[in-house]
Each structure stands twice: as structure tokens, then as C-alpha cells.
Amino acid sequence: MQRRPFLQKVGALSAGLISLPFLSYSTSQLPKATRLKFITASDGHWGQPNTDFALSHQNLIDAIHREKGVDFVVFNGDLIHDTPSFLPEVKAVYDQVQFPTFATRGNHDRVDVETFARVMGHATNHSFVVKDDYGVVLLDSSNLAGDYLCADLNYLKGILDSYEQLSHVFVFIHISQRDWARNGVACQAFMDLIASYKNVRATFHGHDHDLDGLMVYRDKPFLWAGHFGGSWGNPFPSYRVCEVGEDGKSVTYLKTVKEGMLLNSHPL
User: Fold this and answer.
1) What is the model's pLDDT at position 14?
2) Which of 1, 125, 183, 218 sits most deeply, having the most CB atoms within 10 A of its CB?
3) How far apart are CA 71 and CA 68, in angstroms?
4) Is the pTM of this model over 0.85?
5) Is the pLDDT of residue 192 over 60?
6) CB contact at 8 A, 140 and 154
């Protein structure tokens, strides 16, 4: 398997923060029997001028449909590029996906919370349980003006408290809640809240098109998936897969959209 270095150094390390290199992928890391499988991809930027956004979305949908046994897909923010009328257009594209789809609001998704809920079918802060044992939390990190915001901690704590008996919880939020990323925002209370729940297995981000690796804070993994659209970032559009086995072990791995090349994997 081809190996690559981490594409961007993201500032000085601080206590509890580890910047890990990309790991080689091995099929031995996959669960022998998968009970949950989901995909996350971010930053499609539907409608951005001078980009072939329709093709990038179709390529991703084709890649998703090559995957087997997917339970759901999360489009992790920057669904559109600023113009509110693009949101119904991209939702019609998501509706082509053969698996259930959900989304978070990013800084380029400049629609109000009412419009987002009406078009996307769920609120900007949303949660659900899959197969009775896996919690999924989708969090807002922006607003109509496109500001970078901390998550609603009252909402998050209430959901995490209600999910304490679940074996796995996965959190999705577009903007990193720590300034270890160039485009992150410093929300220490969010980081400490996530770290305080044993069953939160991973937090997934978008926003930083040139990040597609792993950071760790107090033993909790925070992951990026690069981008599949937009005008900047990694030269290869990508998406992230997560699988949880019947034995409870879980792994996440990154793949290129076009070729399906496996780029890295991490146990969770």
C-alpha cells in the first residue's frame, strides 16, 4: 500500500494533542463481521463558480454506490457555496443516494435554521440511534452570516447523557472546535465535554480541505476527510468510511473518490 505523509503541519503541539502520520492500510484491520458501516464526505460546495460541482457530486455518488452494506451517509458541511437557492438543488442530488443521508451546516451553507430543516429534513442540531446501539450526533457550527461558531453545548450534553448506555457514539461537526487546525475555532469546553464520555468513539470534521488525517485529544480521535468538491485543498477528492464489527471493534479509513484507493486507516 502506498504511504503518504500528513499533508499539513497544524501548529505547535500542546498537552493532550498528538499529530499522527498516515498509517498503511491492511485488510486485517477490518472487522470480520461488520454490524455498522457509514460514510462521511464534506465540502461539496454545490454551485461554486468555476468548478465542475455537478461532476464532483456524481463521482462521489458513484463511489458511495460501489460500497456495500452502508447504513447511512453524512455530508459534513459546506453543502452549497453561499447562495441559499442552491440548497434544494443539492438535496435533490443527495436524494439519488441509495442509502439514508444526513447533513451538517457549514459556514458556506448560508441558510437559516428553519430553511435548513425544511429542505434537509432535519434540524441543524440533530441526533438519532442506529440498530439500537449506535448514537449519531450532528452539530451546527455556523450561522446565516457564515461565522465560525462553537457547538451548542447544552444540546450536546443532553444528547450524550441520553446516549450513555449505547456502546458507540459518533459526532459530526463541520468546523473543528480546536485551533489545532488552521481554520478551526477555539472551543475548549466542547473538547472537554467530548473527552468526558467514554462511549464517544470519534468526532468527524470537514471545512479544512487540505486535512484528511487524525488528531487526538485526551485519547479521543478527531478526523478529517479532505474534500470532494470546492476549488482548493488536496489534489484528490476523498471520503471516509467507518465500520464497527460485531465484536465492538471499529476502524475508519480514507478512500479517493475516483479510484477507490485506500489512503489511510485508524482503529477507533
Assistant:
1) 28
2) 125
3) 9
4) yes
5) yes
6) no
Q: Which of 122, 202, 191, 197 lies closest to 160 in space, CA to CA?
A: 197
At 243 the three-state DSSP class reads strand
| CB count in 10 Å sphere of residue 198 | 10
Cα–Cα distance for residue pair 34/246, rounded to 1 Å: 6
Tell me the domains of the chain and their CATH numbers.
Answer: 34-267 (3.60.21.10)
SS3 of residue 242 by DSSP: strand
Task: Give the pLDDT confidence of 210-264 residue by residue, as tens digits.
Answer: 999 999 999 999 999 999 999 999 999 999 999 999 999 999 999 999 999 999 9
Q: What is the DSSP string of 6-69?
A: -S---S---TTEEEPPP----GGGS-SSEEEEEEEE----BT-TTS-HHHHHHHHHHHHHHSSS
Higher-pLDDT residue of 16 and 101 is: 101
